[in-house]
Design a protein that fits this description.
Number of strands: 33
Oligomer: single chain
Radius of gyration: 30 Å
Helix content: 10-25%
Strand order of the largest sheet: 22-21-26-17-16-29-32-31
Structural class: mainly beta
Number of helices: 5
Largest sheet: 8 strands, mixed
Distance between the termini: 114 Å
Length: about 500
């Protein structure tokens, strides 16, 4: 019985140890400044923590994210202010009773007692804005609304904090004023200067990443502003990349389902009004009439079509090819117009493809007798978010010992067999699935594989065997007489 109680006490103490260590006064925030850059489908948030260690030997700092903030965050990164190298971060597990989610940041070195450090935490939020009003006429402006919490949550004491919300345009319709925070305010609750709204400074804030503080003080703030660019979302992206050793070519094909998430069109579409706006250069911000995409250098055979067929309203400015492992000074620019102007709430599905020289993407590892191919995750559409993406990399027939590495974690990954023309056993294909991709997710997928010498000969041997079989069939058919009665 005594051993049972000892074991129970150890289990309880072990379960409470992590929470006690997080709640302990290991750090103090001398200042916290959060800067929110408002956008359309994507909102950038940068928070600077001026931290001071209250105890020696500290190597891990914890950042708190509100529940709704974590759900909207698709990318995050922590750095020491003034340095480019990112720090290792880990999202800790949570349960439904927690008021926030904690992110553990591993510091580059131990902080002694009273040691200070400036930590910058950057994140990208997707689907964080919504059109308000939800419907707009063809000539109306595009108004969006963004909401967030007034306080930056933290498991540590904060001496002073402020939040700056910046809009691309000073045309801010309205913003909310927090109530019931007088005990943290000295100079003013909220101020505005041009396109920037500042909440705070708020002083002497106790640890706020807990249910008690959130339920008593935390409250939403909203900013209603004008946004002069289309709000774009890629609902689904299917990228297929085919590696051809015989053709010395890398073919990339994207099937894109584009959605304009701006205010839905109120009333009927007027072609006359659209032509008039386009002629005078005053197109409504919630109308998309062209896209400008950056493609890799050295692209050839660019094609663009939709469900109705080829779309000729495009212009390509191709940049010269750049050798592998060399930094490109410029990219190829593709200007493309959809078949029809894309207004708020409208969709457009199209296919974009191009070829690049294989030597620009594939290298040879002589030490391990392996090929290494680098494939970009996506071709980013400026200002957009990709809700769901699938990248399929088709390797040469006969490739084996396949290994791959993604620049960031994928939802799922698999290796399958892809069969196309002139194949005998099919080609191995690596498939990766992602969600919530933005411009910050630009990176390369690296795939290494081996191709035996016989595998290179498989295709010509198969083609030769087919032609030889047809020749023998014709040769035999020429000499077989199937007539019942021969002519005399």
């Amino acid at each position: 019985m005594l051993q049972h109680w000892r074991r129970l006490c150890l289990l309880v103490a072990g379960s409470l140890l992590p929470s006690l260590s997080l709640a302990g006064p290991s750090f103090e925030n001398t200042a916290v400044v959060r800067t929110i850059e408002l956008g359309g489908s994507v909102v950038h948030v940068s928070t600077t923590y001026a931290i001071k260690a209250l105890e020696g030997g500290q190597t891990t700092y914890h950042i708190a994210l509100a529940k709704d903030e974590k759900e909207k965050t698709s990318w995050m990164e922590a750095k020491i202010k003034g340095q480019a190298k990112p720090l290792a971060i880990t999202v800790l597990d949570e349960d439904d009773t927690d008021a926030s989610s904690l992110v553990a940041v591993t510091l580059p070195k131990q902080l002694s007692a009273h040691g200070t450090l400036n930590l910058v935490f950057e994140s990208v939020q997707t689907h964080a804005t919504r059109p308000h009003p939800e419907r707009a006429a063809q000539t109306d402006p595009q108004l969006l609304k963004y909401e967030t919490g007034v306080f930056v949550l933290s498991p540590y004491d904060t001496l002073v904090q402020r939040t700056k919300v910046r809009s691309l345009s000073p045309d801010i319709i309205s913003y909310s004023t927090p109530q019931g925070v007088d005990e943290f305010v000295r100079d003013g609750t909220v101020t505005r200067s041009g396109a920037t709204i500042t909440y705070g400074p708020y002083h002497n804030i106790p640890p706020s990443a807990n249910v008690e503080f959130v339920s008593k003080y935390q409250q939403p703030i909203s900013i209603h502003y004008n946004f002069d660019y289309p709000v774009l979302e890629v609902k689904n992206l299917e990228r297929s990349v085919e590696v051809s050793h015989w053709g010395a070519n890398l073919n990339v094909e994207d099937k894109i389902h584009l959605h304009n998430a701006g205010p839905a069109l109120k009333g009927h579409f007027s072609r006359l009004e659209y032509q008039s706006q386009n002629f005078f250069g005053r197109l409504s911000p919630h109308t998309l009439n062209r896209l400008i995409l950056q493609l890799p250098p050295g692209v050839t055979n660019v094609y663009y079509y939709d469900l109705n067929g080829n779309v000729s309203t495009s212009n390509l400015r191709a940049a010269p090819s750049v050798p592998k492992n060399s930094k490109a000074s410029q990219n190829s620019i593709l200007e493309m117009s959809p078949r029809y102007p894309l207004l708020g709430g409208w969709n457009y599905s199209f296919t974009l493809g191009f070829d690049t020289p294989l030597r620009d993407s594939v290298g040879w590892d002589a030490a391990n007798d392996r090929y290494i191919v680098a494939v970009p995750v996506t071709t980013h559409i400026p200002g957009s978010v990709v809700d769901e993406a699938t990248v399929k990399i088709i390797l040469p027939e006969g490739a084996s010992n396949i290994e791959f590495a993604s620049p960031f974690s994928a939802l799922s990954s698999s290796v399958s067999t892809h069969i196309t023309y002139l194949d005998t056993i099919g080609r191995p294909a690596v498939t990766l699935a992602y969600e919530g991709l933005t411009g910050k997710h630009a990176g390369m997928i690296y795939v290494s594989y081996s191709v035996p010498f016989f595998a290179h000969l498989r295709k010509p041997l198969a083609v030769g065997a087919v032609f030889f079989g047809l020749f023998m069939l014709g040769f035999t058919a020429k000499r077989v007489d199937l007539r019942l009665h021969k002519q005399s």
